[in-house]
Write a structure and sequence with these properties.
Keywords: Membrane, Transmembrane, Transmembrane helix, Transport. This is MFS general substrate transporter. One of its GO terms (cellular component) is membrane. It comes from Sistotremastrum suecicum HHB10207 ss-3. It contains 23 helices and two strands. By secondary structure, the protein is mostly helical. It has two domains: 252 residues, Growth Hormone, Chain: A; 212 residues, MFS general substrate transporter like domains (Growth Hormone, Chain: A), CATH 1.20.1250.20. Strands 1-2 form a two-stranded antiparallel ribbon. A hairpin with a 6-residue loop joins β1 and β2. α17 runs parallel beside α20 and α20 packs antiparallel against α21. The longest helix has 35 residues.
Length: 567
């Protein structure tokens, strides 16, 4: 399976380098996308892929908002309530792997539509859960569906972007912030009037008066269903040409490209040579695949598809065996199928060996220190941010109980969550700007990480409501800047051939941090409500130290610096 980072390597290369063809050769398929350009099809697809980002954060924020209500509904202890968020993150980790494999085997369209449909379905199932255990199981299934949205949608849009437009993929982070805001707005509208107070407050019939969290999940499931329907009813998605080429279906790739160009209003004429995703390596003079070695050539005898009835072989790109190449005795259908199966298994075996070699390469003496620091940075940042984010609504409510400084009720705490979500909206743009200032990426990332820790400490110690909300806005803004820089910088630290493996493994470790954080935070919550926030601040500081230990310019940047010096 190709990770989302691997599929986006070209994007990072164009950002890291000077953009010349001599720096990274362009394949004929790359040049075909450049000819088609950035048209209406790409803009519509970019917007629809944004639904995946929106759904991701929308449901993560929903789990945090309903957590206090679920705790009251099922009378769950602080130590155990974190299993809700851990179940979602575990499902998201499985979903990222599973849907990526699905998109490689069945095509991008299946994953593109399937993730949102199943997210809507499992979101509805969550709202109907009759026990805490069933809710956690349902949330795992929800995570396994929505967890595939960002990697598969990111892969799809990256495969359609022409040169010089890959930076637009980062615009999807705007949808991510909107998802959190949308959840907070819906929560304010439906939860306060349909919820019981926290545990230990006024007695309440939870079966009758604590349905707000169910209403929230049902409304979000409806929103997700609408996004799914927009994808299938108002837009015709053509299979990714790059996927078709790597699946050996070159003629179908041509048809897909021609339909895309026609949608853009500028039809192009293409030949088979225009969809080759290979380039000639100048040093060796051989034809090489730009990401993976080409699959073994399988010559299909003319009678192979006879047993399957009417089949348009030309449209499917099937290469028929020449009489000069075919055996004197044509193999039987079972023998032909066996040959194809052996070829596929051989290809998968070579990919597994290549993956193992890449993992060994990122841990080689040359890269070991850098890799371990990057892994530590991703893990600690995810641990810290998740621990604070998932317990924020509960912490806000806990501070209002028995407080002499205002009466922060459920509606007030949700308003603070909305302000928190709004605070992160400009973070991606600020992160992009900070990277090009004299601070550079390393200092910008370290500064935003330490600033997030500072606002966590401020959150613990302030008592005035407006300062409390200012602290939450600071955490959200700085954390969004932090993630924007981290996602953009990490790939450029590593050499091109190692980026997919290094970034994919770092992303997996961040998911593990997201699984551990709610469990650890729940245990700390039992000791003192402030302890999870202190732990988050400490983890952010540790992440900042790891960032400062990294080189400002990794091997992946040196080529860019040389080009800048020349120009």
């Amino acid at each position: 399976m190709r990770s989302s980072f691997s599929d986006n390597e070209q994007e990072y290369d164009s950002e890291a380098g000077d953009g010349s063809d001599t720096e990274e050769p362009r394949t004929p398929l790359d040049k075909t996308f450049d000819r088609i350009g950035m048209g209406a099809y790409q803009w519509v697809l970019l917007s629809l892929c944004g639904f995946g980002w929106l759904a991701d954060n929308m449901w993560l924020q929903a789990v945090a908002i309903v957590l206090p209500r679920v705790q009251r509904h099922y009378e769950i202890s602080d130590r155990s309530i974190g299993f809700m968020s851990s179940a979602v993150h575990a499902g998201m980790m499985v979903g990222a792997l599973g849907w990526g494999t699905c998109s490689d085997l069945l095509g991008r369209i299946t994953a593109f539509n399937g993730t949102l449909f199943l997210t809507s379905l499992f979101g509805l199932v969550c709202s109907l859960a009759g026990s805490f255990n069933w809710l956690c199981i349902s949330l795992f299934l929800l995570g396994s569906a929505v967890g595939g949205s960002m990697p598969t949608d990111g892969t799809l849009i990256s495969e359609h972007m022409p040169r010089g437009k890959q930076y637009l993929v980062t615009a999807l982070s705007v949808f991510f912030s909107i998802g959190g805001v949308l959840t907070a707005v819906v929560g304010i509208l439906v939860i306060p009037s349909n919820s019981c107070g926290p545990l230990g407050t006024v007695p309440c019939d939870t079966q009758e008066y604590n349905k707000g969290w169910r209403y929230l999940l049902q409304i979000l499931a409806l929103f997700t269903l609408v996004m799914f329907l927009c994808r299938i009813l108002f837009f015709t998605l053509h299979e990714s040409p790059r996927y078709l080429v790597h699946a050996g279906r070159h003629r179908e790739a041509i048809i897909s490209l021609q339909k895309i160009s026609a949608f853009n209003g500028e039809p192009v004429r293409l030949e088979l040579s225009d969809v080759q995703d290979t380039y000639k390596e100048s040093l060796e003079g051989t034809l090489l695949d730009r990401e993976n070695p080409p699959p073994p050539t399988v010559i299909v005898p003319q009678n192979q598809y006879a047993v399957y009835g009417d089949y348009d072989q030309e449209a499917a790109g099937v290469v028929q065996a020449s009489p000069l190449l075919a055996d004197e005795r044509s193999p039987s259908p079972s023998e032909s199928a066996l040959r194809v199966e052996d070829a596929v298994l051989d290809q998968q075996s070579r990919r597994m060996r290549a993956s193992a070699n890449k993992i060994a390469a990122v841990l080689s003496p040359e890269w070991r220190r850098t890799t371990l620091l990057v892994w530590a940075t991703w893990w600690t940042m995810s641990l810290a941010f998740t621990m604070f984010n998932v317990f924020l609504p509960k912490l806000l409510e806990a501070r209002s109980i028995g407080s002499d400084h205002g009466s922060e009720d459920i509606a007030g705490s949700l308003m603070s969550v909305l302000i928190y979500s709004l605070g992160g909206c400009p973070g991606a743009l600020l992160g992009a700007w900070m990277q090009v200032t004299s601070l550079g990426r390393r200092l910008s990332l370290a500064l935003s990480t330490v600033a997030t820790a500072f606002f966590c400490l401020l959150f613990v110690h302030v008592q005035v409501q407006w300062l409390l909300r200012l602290a939450t806005m600071g955490i959200s803004l700085c954390a969004t800047i932090m993630w924007a820089i981290l996602y953009g910088w990490t790939p450029t630290i590593f050499a091109t051939e190692l980026r997919g493996t290094a970034c994919g493994s770092a992303s997996a470790l961040s998911r593990i941090g997201g699984i551990i954080a709610p469990l650890l935070g729940g245990w700390l919550l039992m000791l003192d409500p402030a302890f999870p926030v202190y732990a988050s601040a400490a983890a952010f500081v540790l992440a900042g130290i790891c960032v400062l230990a990294l080189p400002e310019h990794g091997n992946g940047d040196r080529r860019s610096l040389a080009a800048e010096a020349i120009h």
